[in-house]
């Protein structure tokens, strides 16, 4: 299996190369040259496998010769052995149609752990072979940062510089990053929004003065290996609800489009998915794109669901590439226009292709609160604001009653205690394994929201190529 760029001109890489590279040299995102496909009999044969074994089976076609099946299984067992639930991503039932897929049982209480615990091990594996140093530069709207830091803290030959928008993440999210005091971890609070931070990260990848001196790697969902790991829990949930003999719908609270794109990949691999529901908050660029063809960035509105306060969804490019006949040159021109104007209309082929699998919905603050209350009062489940936005969309989907609808629970409710308490009158409690979070020392630096300030700091403190 090799990997090609969505913009068509970067060299193809194998899985190990794409994992360490992150963003392609032409500014595009790596995708497999073709989607592996499982038959219905293959999928039926996955039923009952432990999560780590299912992960190895689903991911092996993407890994190719970069890892033997035996070594990949060792890594998946190590990654998912740290989760607080034996099922890793357990499924709960709300009512006769609505289900909840809990993705927050990892060490930082968010769905990002499912991918990043594995990605940290992959970095260590591939860097050990090459002897090179890796400088990870990432941006977070809340959960990616803590999950990535936990995954690579203390690992040899890896340094991580994580940017977050100052004052725009929850206190729990911030402390989960800033209380990790490992010497290879640097937290940077910038003035501005997540979109500003993400734009700086992309610019670093395309800055020859930086990439000529440092091996720059990515932990954001621009990194293919991270998306690959997220495909697995769609299969896990689908199998529990009757796949391959029964189609399942998924409602995904979405900011950067990576989590729901993993569902698209699962569908391309043969998992029968009835519908992927893209659930946004009032920062609704993806809802507008899918419902009207209008992919135009507006001003970010801060909300109680900060991980979705995004107006530029990086992974949407992967879907547009696939839906437009995988024409890298055409997509490169389309994205260049968007990057210049922050506005873009989807082509007819892109709109029609998306509508075959995707729908979308938007939730405002009142609708989000109502979903939190319903889950608590009707089902006794506390859910976080992001999950609530997914649940709102799931309950409004209008799908036939015999189609199970799975909402992805992307974060533990205790990461957003004020919002949950305001909606339910009940304050969620942090699990005991992170219960001393508010007593730990914090360490971070603050920088202006300029590329020059961030690039200068990173290049001054990072380890050059070995």
Structure report:
- The protein has 466 residues and is α/β, with parallel strands linked by helices.
- The chain has a domain at 80-105 and 224-424: Rossmann fold.
- It is 43% helix and 15% strand.
- Helix 5 (112-130) runs parallel beside helix 6.
- The longest helix is centred in the first third of the chain and has 19 residues, at 112-130.
- The radius of gyration is 20 Å and the shape is globular.
- The two termini are 28 Å apart.
- The mean pLDDT is 95.
Concise overview:
With 466 residues, the chain is an alpha/beta fold. The protein has helices spanning 15-21, 40-44, 51-63, 69-80, 112-130, 143-152, 171-178, 194-205, 208-211, 224-240, 258-268, 285-292, 316-323, 328-341, 348-355, 365-379, 385-395, 417-424, 451-461; strands spanning 2-5, 13-14, 30-32, 91-93, 98-102, 134-139, 158-165, 185-190, 216-217, 248-253, 273-280, 294-296, 343-345, 358-362, 405-409, 445-447.
CATH class of one domain: Alpha Beta
Low-confidence stretches: none
| CATH fold type of one domain | Rossmann fold
Number of helices: 19
Report the β-strand fraction as a percent range: 15-25%
The biggest beta sheet reads: 6 strands, mixed
- Radius of gyration equals 20 Å
Widest sheet: strand ordering = 4-5-15-10-11-14
What is the approximate shape?
globular
Give the integer mean of the pLDDT values: 95
What structural class is derived from the secondary structure elements? Answer: alpha/beta
Please state the second-level CATH architecture of one domain: 3-Layer(aba) Sandwich
Distance between the first and last residues' Cα: 28 Å
